[in-house]
From TrEMBL:
<comment type="similarity">
    <text>Belongs to the bacterial ribosomal protein bL27 family.</text>
</comment>
<dbReference type="Pfam" id="PF01016">
    <property type="entry name" value="Ribosomal_L27"/>
</dbReference>
<dbReference type="InterPro" id="IPR018261">
    <property type="entry name" value="Ribosomal_bL27_CS"/>
</dbReference>
<protein>
    <recommendedName>
        <fullName>Large ribosomal subunit protein bL27</fullName>
    </recommendedName>
</protein>
<dbReference type="InterPro" id="IPR001684">
    <property type="entry name" value="Ribosomal_bL27"/>
</dbReference>
<dbReference type="GO" id="GO:0003735">
    <property type="term" value="F:structural constituent of ribosome"/>
</dbReference>
<keyword id="KW-0689">Ribosomal protein</keyword>
<feature type="region of interest" description="Disordered">
    <location>
        <begin position="1"/>
        <end position="21"/>
    </location>
</feature>
<dbReference type="GO" id="GO:0006412">
    <property type="term" value="P:translation"/>
</dbReference>
<keyword id="KW-0687">Ribonucleoprotein</keyword>
<dbReference type="GO" id="GO:0022625">
    <property type="term" value="C:cytosolic large ribosomal subunit"/>
</dbReference>
Length: 93
């Protein structure tokens, strides 16, 4: 007859991998059309001029240019300012 109670199994001990969220292209950084600017859950940043939003709230550039983060009416917006150097940068690739 056992004098020690059987040890129960632990219900903890596992963790999920990080989702790699956050800003991928920072302010005044050059982007090409389709480049991901921000990966996020929900809308911490809203899409501004020349920026699109995916179904998972990912913000991406619609045109080549420079990234700009601005605040309007208490909301953070991400815009892409198109510049003349951007088409030359795209042609070089």
């Amino acid at each position: 007859m056992a004098h020690k109670k059987a040890g129960g199994s632990s219900r903890n001990g596992r963790d999920s991998a990080g989702r790699r969220l956050g800003v991928k292209k920072f302010g005044s950084e050059a982007v090409l059309a389709g480049n991901i600017i921000v990966r996020q859950r929900g809308t911490k940043w809203h899409p501004g001029v020349n920026v699109g939003m995916g179904t998972d709230h990912t913000l991406f550039a619609l045109t080549a240019g420079k990234v700009q983060f601005i605040t309007k009416r208490g909301r953070a917006f991400v815009t892409v300012v198109a510049n003349d150097a951007a088409p030359a940068l795209e042609a070089a690739e």
